[in-house]
């Protein structure tokens, strides 16, 4: 490359003093500095689900990112979340019996973001100019990079040029954006491997600014946390050497870093998980079970250990305000949403009378969420307090088994009909997943063939935050059936428990953080056995809502076991304790 080009695309980085900090810290044998407004906790994510701020995600990964920032704000943690602002958002609707994906343009100007400046990254022999925009929320901020042709979240296939472009832009562009704002990361948390290039940008900055390469690796490693959400490494995207030639190397200044990354290719292909492991000394999984079973190996072939930090949710976002006030007034939760030391003794205050009262408030929230949506038959649904509602709300992916309850529609009908109960399904099919589009349509055709189910099983398309909240507030029973071992954590069941719904679930993800006797468990040696137990549990759940004693007992038991797990403040505290040990 010629020096003219060089001048162009290397955004002038502020001269770093990280080198001095490093040697100073080595002397004191303590590498990690605590967070401050100038050295914030930085959180990197390709997906954010925060519609109030104009950013619509795809699922749990994005919801977690939004909740993590909200909890940091509540706790006064200096925190910067770095993410793309996608100029298009995806919606999924049913039209003429088909599932259709649609794009809608969005502008950051409508959501209170401030334009800061632009930064450049080199991509495919071009200079790509990215706008840096920012929105502040007390001690926290969202820093986003964007440009008109950035396209939508998860555009194209994983492993495609455009995905690599998006990931390189977030990493190198986002890192340059931090510098532009005068921020140095105290820690870089990588929310999955699509954010790897942020850590690479830091390594490159250190190594090309006077730090010995190996020390730069140590420094970067000690300040990078890789949070894994995927169970098997094989499932991860790969890129080719040729793609790196066009998108990655041109953004690197240090020859040593180029060489380092070049050595990580196997048969001219590179797995981002493999290099993310190499660049992070701190690694976490998102539930106790997941951290234990995630099967990852470093380049030397050694099994990678993950620290368990179970996901939590931002209580104020996901719990009905009336229920939050109850938790606080009863001294069950403190001001930041963490259970008090004696919370278990206070749970008897959540009696059946209150549970029913809050559910009737929740039903109004659900009706609000349903008012401008229709089910598969084009009907707008509104429910009364007497209606009984089961819900299954989660991405329509195979391992979550949305179709399991429909294996025996005769039996399902016999559970629902005596109580006049409804069953609501909500969840997006991953764009392009033809297997799951097919399963959804098949499920709906089974439902259409039965004259009871036809009017009592409802598929609501375009699953989003408002519907997730409405269902957790307003239904009676939530159903969660991942194949055991495949759910990393899951957070929608947390919303259900916190909003006083009964949970029927397999023992997987974060649910397995507590004992199997804490909720209405589904298990079995085969899928047939699991299905049988599911139907029994559904019958039990209907019975429980008929009995004040049972209802109170089951709801209190869930809260006793899971309030600490659910608490986002607990999650943030665990991250801080792990990253900044005293
Ligand atoms: C909470 C939430 C999720 C998380 O779903 P899980 O299946 O529990 O991981 C996904 N999408 C939306 C819109 C949510 O609100």
What does this structure look like?
With 582 residues, the chain is an alpha/beta fold. It has two domains: 3-87 and 113-311 and 574-579, Rossmann fold (3-Layer(aba) Sandwich); 315-566, 3-Layer(aba) Sandwich (Rossmann fold), CATH 3.40.50.2000. 40% of the residues lie in helices and 18% in strands. The protein has 22 helices and 19 strands. Helix 18 (465-474) runs parallel beside helix 19 and helix 19 (492-498) crosses helix 21. The longest helix has 20 residues, at 161-180. The model is unreliable at 1-17 (pLDDT under 50). Pyridoxal-5'-phosphate binds at residues 59-60, 63, 394-395, 463-465, 468, 490-492, 495.
Which short descriptors sum up this protein?
582 residues; binds pyridoxal-5'-phosphate; nine-stranded mixed sheet; globular; Rossmann fold; alpha/beta; 22 helices
Quickly give the CATH architecture of the largest domain. Answer: 3-Layer(aba) Sandwich
* Form type: globular
CATH topology of the largest domain: Rossmann fold
Q: Give helix % range.
A: 40-55%
Q: For the CA atoms, what is the radius of gyration?
A: 24 Å
Domain count? 2
Biggest β-sheet strands, sense, barrel: 9 strands, mixed
CATH class of the largest domain, named: Alpha Beta
The strands making up the biggest β-sheet line up spatially as 5-6-7-2-1-8-9-12-13
Distance, first to last CA = 46 Å
Ions, cofactors and other bound molecules: pyridoxal-5'-phosphate
User: Mean pLDDT score, rounded?
Assistant: 93
Question: What is the CATH superfamily classification of the largest domain?
Answer: Glycogen Phosphorylase B
Q: Which structural class fits the helix and strand makeup?
A: alpha/beta
Strand percent estimate: 15-25%
DSSP strand count: 19
Low-confidence stretches: 1-17
Number of discrete helical segments: 22
